[in-house]
Amino acid sequence: MKLFILTAFLSVMTIAASAQCDHEVILQSTTGRFVDGDKKDSDKNIEATIRVSKDKFVLLLTIAGETSTITNTIDKVTACDWKEFLVNGKSAYKVTTDKGDGKKEPSVIRLNSKNGKTTIYFGSDPDDKGGLELDVDEVKNSQ
Question: Is residue 141 predicted with pLDDT exceeding 60?
Answer without folding.
Answer: yes
